[in-house]
Amino acid sequence: MTTKGTRRHFKPEFKKDAVALVSEQGYSIPTAAEAVGITANNLRRWIKELKLEESGVRLDAGERAELDRLLREIRQLRMEKEILKKASAFFAKEIK
């Protein structure tokens, strides 16, 4: 049993395997949840999340990581662009 205030984290492979018990092997949600040691509500949520990922409505972990990386890169490029604008304006004044 976990102590109050701590959360257990599960790997994506574990979640997919737990969902597969219901979707592929025909277990009921409560039976599958008990078999892997989680709550039925967790398993229901994982099933819903996996369906959304498969339909393309929700990003999976790899897509989320790629999106985060691209957003960081965009912020960096915008900052560099602003620095170059200021530098070009400064040197344009010096030339005149």
From TrEMBL:
Coiled coil region boundaries: 60-87
Gene3D superfamilies: Homeodomain-like
The name this protein goes by in its record: Transposase
SUPFAM superfamilies assigned to the protein according to its UniProt record, in alphabetical order: Homeodomain-like
Key words, A-Z: Coiled coil
PANTHER family membership: PROTEIN DISTAL ANTENNA
Protein family: Belongs to the transposase 8 family.
Ranges annotated as spanning the membrane: none
Pfam family of the protein (one): HTH_Tnp_1
